[in-house]
Write a structure and sequence with these properties.
Elements (H helix, E strand, L loop, with lengths): L33 H23 L4 H9 L7 E5 L4 E5 L19 H25 L17
Antiparallel strand pairs: 1-2
Length: about 150
Amino acid sequence: MSLDVAVPDPPELEGIDPNEYDDAEVVGDTDYKRDELEQFLEDGAWEEAFRQWAEETDMDESDFEIMLDLEMIQQFDFFWDSFAERVGYHAPGIPENWKERNYHPDIESWGTVSSINASLTELGQIVCDVLKDEYIDWETEYDAPDDLPDF
């Protein structure tokens, strides 16, 4: 299945510490290279990744419209994890208490919530893969201790 929609603008990356996310495991320095990643997204990585995702996603246009109404694209975060030498990300999601909060008038089922949340996770991973495979050529600097034994 594919989704035939216009590519939305890429997210603007803010200075959030990835360790504050419930699902993040980031080890390393605090230079998350968001400025560089944001520039790559603007230079075409976002559009390329979005188009790849849209070709494969199971999300339908009504769920996509809900996602746009909730401005979920702008809630994405991408950051460089120097320890793992990878692009990390945090995908937005609709909370478990969506029904009690009247989160969006067109959300009527857990199926819709699950579809949106899973699709956003898939989009985030594709963006990371495109960034790492086609845009990033950084090498993490590692200083070996001076007192390593000779073998």
